[in-house]
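Ticket #4471: structure output looks truncated?

Reporter: J.K.
Steps to reproduce: submitted the chain below (310 residues) through the standard prediction queue, then opened the result file.
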Amino acid sequence: MNDAQPPGPTDLAAVVAGIAQTNELLQRVLAKVSTTPSIHAVFADAGYVYAAVGRLVAGTEDRRTVDLDAEGLIEAFIDKARTIFPDSRLLRVYWYDGARRRLHTTEQQRIAELPDVKVRLGNLNANNQQKGVDSLIRTDLETLARHRAISDAVLIGGDEDLVSAVEAAQGYGARVHLWGIEAVTGRNQADPLLWEVDSQRTFDLEFCKPYVTRRPVVYETYGDPVGGSGVRPGREDVRFVGARIAAQWLLERGRETLAELLPGHPYLPGSTDQELLVEAEGLLQHSLRGHADLRRALRDGFWDHLQAQL
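Returned output as attached by the reporter:
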């Protein structure tokens, strides 16, 4: 004989109250999840970028014979990621390179000074080969994914050794997107890496060409050489030129066209940034390539005028 008694009114009320409390807790969790922004980060193997871009644009993988506008290319990557992940916030760009005794070169120092960019260095052996870069990428990817610091990872590289980094990040729920540079022939990314990632994207010659030149470099605009023996302009001079170009573009292109740039502040689309750079070099008669502080001053002047007028 079963002596269990049916639940009384008090017991039912407690059950209902418990269900209501659970539902309220779930609603709070869902509300928090729905308002938590997605975050992405870019992990770029500089050795791969230099070799692939140099081969595609200049016909050589020798970094000593190629000038790469790393700042411009990194900003183009940032701009592209912003269009692909419109509802996501950039954590930062990780730029992995090699250096002897892990001491920054002058170029690497300039890149490290860029906003939203962190330079991570492996060793460079006697044959100028990077050592330890893949392990750095894996550590950063896995750590950020494990702590839920990123939801999407953009990986720019081609080495098969990066497969373990992809698997580690995916194991913690992050999506990994492989970006590469168009190969002249065949592929410049390992097949196992291509098979493992969540999506793939390749940048062609037209995208890469503005950022690469063969040495020695003589930039020419408005018929006169740029970046020769002229005196380095000051930040205020460059800032003024940025504002001057903004004023001229407003007259030529119209307010509506330039107003479309405002949501992207403080970044400019890659093509627009290159136009601004080339025009500024022509007015200053001095190359701004490799001078991150002057390029920031140029953009600051451009944005100051644009925002004041719009």
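Triage note (M.O.): checked the attachment and the full token line is present. The chain is about 50% helix and 20% strand.
Status: closed, working as intended.
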